[in-house]
Specification:
The protein is mainly alpha-helical. It has 13 helices and six strands. α2 runs parallel beside α3 and α4 packs parallel to α6. The termini are far apart. The strands form three sheets. A two-stranded antiparallel ribbon has the order 1-2. A two-stranded antiparallel ribbon has the order 3-4.
């Protein structure tokens, strides 16, 4: 089993219609402002993420973000500082984020590195790079290099964008200019080796479990875990025959699986998966990927629930609709401020 069919639904919503997409964006913006600020502060589902999304969509509101839960990107100070474009606040939070034993994108050094590149904090970026390279170790069982995350007394080795290899590799790719040519070459070689060793295949389709050796019953097709996130993380890497083959096979899997049943959102919903198509459109220059991205957009319009979060709710849908209009593959708060 390469994906779980019960988690997906047939594609609906009809052909691409820019007019309907613009109406949906306006609806989300108006509904978000009318509902008022979310109860939490961070960028994932909180005020900071809402402020960022509304600003990106041409609307400013006077909401206070408040303090984050810890130093990390998802719900902590690093993410809030990015959303507010506050370099001083970012520098205050970055050391603890870099040292966090989560050691991944949403809570650890990967997120700090992405933030440092977006805000031009080169000294912070170098510290995060050192942390990531020094903790990227060879696993004798896997026969490849992988990061280990520690939290709640557990040690885990994730593969995806949100928490694992793909996300940290993405951060290092964003900082390629600050690393040697040898490191840049080694980076791609290590990632490809790990992805090849952990891939789950079915004909010309490929996916990845949350962790090496995860039961097939846990496999997902989401931005956070699985093929869509791997594509989104690595589509900006230098051309590489093996990597290109993996990314194309992963994109076909996302299309074959179809939209997610449970959510329209970025992290574990339809538009997070659709963003993989925008990334492949840019990498391959094959317009079929843009057409697929826009079909997912029309489906997501009908999936909206009124949930306000950037990564978990309708604001992510609105940003995706705008990205499909603009043919812009840049992920919010990761590729672009």
């Amino acid at each position: 089993m390469i994906f779980r069919p019960k988690e997906h639904v047939p594609l609906a919503g009809g052909p691409w219609d820019e007019r309907l997409a613009r109406y949906a964006i306006a609806d989300v913006v108006d509904e978000t402002i009318a509902a008022g600020p979310p109860d939490e502060a961070g960028v994932y589902a909180g005020v900071a993420g809402a402020l960022y999304a509304l600003r990106s969509l041409g609307r400013d509101v006077e909401w206070e973000a408040g303090a984050g839960e810890g130093p990390g990107f998802a719900d902590g100070e690093v993410g809030i500082a990015l959303a507010l474009r506050d370099g001083e606040r970012f520098r205050a939070a970055a050391p603890a984020c870099i040292a966090d034993p989560w050691n991944e994108l949403l809570f650890g050094a990967g997120g700090a590195l992405v933030g440092a590149r977006l805000l031009g904090a080169e000294d912070v970026a170098h510290e995060a790079i050192r942390r990531l390279w020094s903790t990227w170790s060879f696993d004798s069982k896997l026969r490849a290099c992988i990061w280990t995350e520690a939290f709640d007394g557990k040690r885990r080795q994730f593969l995806g964008f949100a928490h694992g290899v793909a996300g940290n590799a993405y951060a290092l790719l964003r900082a390629a200019a600050l690393q040697s040519r040898e490191h840049q070459t080694e980076l791609v070689q290590r990632v490809v080796e790990t992805l090849e060793r952990t891939a789950v295949r079915d004909g010309n389709l490929v996916n990845w479990p949350p962790e090496p050796g995860s039961p097939r019953t846990q496999i997902r097709v989401q931005w956070c875990h699985g093929a869509p996130g791997v594509v989104c993380a690595l589509a900006g890497a230098p051309a590489h025959r093996q990597l290109d083959a993996l990314l194309l096979a992963a994109g076909e899997l996302v299309w074959e699986a179809g939209p997610l049943r449970a959510s329209a959102g970025l992290c574990h919903g339809t538009v997070g998966n659709g963003w993989a198509f925008l990334k492949l459109n840019r990498r391959t220059r094959d317009r079929k990927w843009l057409e697929r991205a826009r079909r997912f957009a029309m489906h997501a319009i009908e999936q909206r629930t009124g949930e306000p979060g950037l990564w978990s709710g309708d604001l992510g849908v609105a940003l995706y609709l705008q990205a499909c209009i603009d043919v812009d593959d840049r992920l919010p708060l990761l590729d672009v401020l």
